[in-house]
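Section 5: illustrative case.
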């Protein structure tokens, strides 16, 4: 199995022509139906080469995928909710810091003594 080197005439699954979509070459032969049922000479699909859209659709049908996707969506919703809450909290903190007046420094701050003074230093 590999990415197709060139776009096939038709997808082996949906028979659509999708030149802008990547295709997967399963490297297996297939005696498929004629592309145009009214004209059997129009060609057959001989190789299993499927478009990415068909493969994604098939992948979504698997039960394990549905469970994983559901869990990831739930985790994403929780993370987005938490991000919004933290953003609101950060905005509140920023508003509190911006609105707080600056502390006045007295000229004598270095000479000021604390409340507790040891007896031998007094």
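Designed sequence:
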């Amino acid at each position: 199995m590999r990415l197709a080197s060139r776009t096939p005439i038709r997808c082996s699954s949906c028979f659509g022509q999708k030149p802008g979509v990547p295709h997967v070459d399963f490297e297996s032969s297939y005696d498929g139906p004629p592309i145009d049922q009214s004209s059997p000479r129009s060609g057959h699909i001989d190789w299993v080469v499927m478009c990415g859209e068909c493969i994604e659709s098939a992948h979504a049908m698997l039960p394990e995928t549905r469970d994983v996707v559901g869990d990831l969506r739930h985790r994403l919703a929780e993370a987005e909710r938490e991000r919004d809450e933290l953003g609101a909290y950060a905005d509140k903190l920023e508003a509190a810091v911006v609105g707080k007046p600056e502390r006045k420094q007295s000229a004598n701050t270095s000479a000021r003594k604390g409340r507790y003074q040891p007896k031998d230093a007094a």
